[in-house]
Specification:
The protein is built from four helices and 15 strands. It is mainly β. The radius of gyration is 16 Å and the shape is globular.
Length: 213
């Protein structure tokens, strides 16, 4: 794995929730291109591993995301060819510190250590339609959020095509297609879990970190 790239505001509900702020300063108009961010290597984790909350973070959002695993380099890819560059799919928990705006890079909120647990890669051939997957987020075994990739503004192929107009996605990169609006929140002692049709289940406990001072 090389780079994990995420797309903000790619669910219709998330876009609608932010729409009033998009026309306000300093932006003045909605974004035309995908709004992207990175989950660097310090955030990467795996199924079952605890996510440790820093002392200044009382709770986090459970970011139920479909991860698209790139199988071969994609640069200026046409939408019709985009899925041919996909090796597989995986469940990703885009753990995020709650914050008021997503119209600037939320590095402090998204890039804490261990804030990107990822499940096993399922080959693309076993996922016939990535744009019709039910996604469920649980906290302590209770279903707290349900959505579908049918609600994406840019479907998987369109997102790949739009991003690769200006940057290459390389083999091994993971593209997060977005997180539905109103993600559930969890605290230390809780267990977060995400299920996506055909991809299984990703589950991680939340633990309180120690103050280093």
């Amino acid at each position: 794995m090389k780079t994990v790239v995420g797309a903000l505001l790619n669910y219709r509900g998330a876009w609608q929730a932010m729409a009033p702020a998009m026309s306000q300063p300093p932006h003045h108009r909605p974004p035309v291109h995908p709004v992207l961010y990175l989950k660097p290597a310090n955030t990467w984790s795996a199924d079952g591993r605890p996510v440790v909350l820093p002392p200044d973070v009382p709770e986090v959002e459970v970011g139920a995301a479909l991860g698209v695993v790139i199988g071969r380099a994609a640069a200026r890819v046409r939408r019709a060819d985009a899925l041919g560059h996909v090796a597989g799919y995986r469940i990703v928990n885009d753990v995020t510190v709650p914050h008021a705006t997503v119209l600037r890079p939320p590095l402090k909120q998204k890039c804490r250590d261990g804030f990107c647990p990822m499940g096993a890669v399922v080959p693309a051939a076993r996922v016939p339609d990535p744009d019709a997957l039910s996604i469920r987020a649980f906290v302590n075994g209770t279903l707290r959020r349900q959505a579908s990739t049918r609600e994406l503004i840019r479907d998987v192929a369109t997102l790949i095509a739009d991003i690769t107009e200006f940057m290459t996605l390389d083999a091994g990169d993971v593209l997060l297609v977005g997180v539905p609006e109103d993600p559930p929140r969890a605290r230390a002692g809780d267990r977060m879990a995400i299920e996506i049709d055909g991809l299984g289940r990703l589950e991680n406990p939340l633990e309180a970190g120690e103050d280093a001072s």
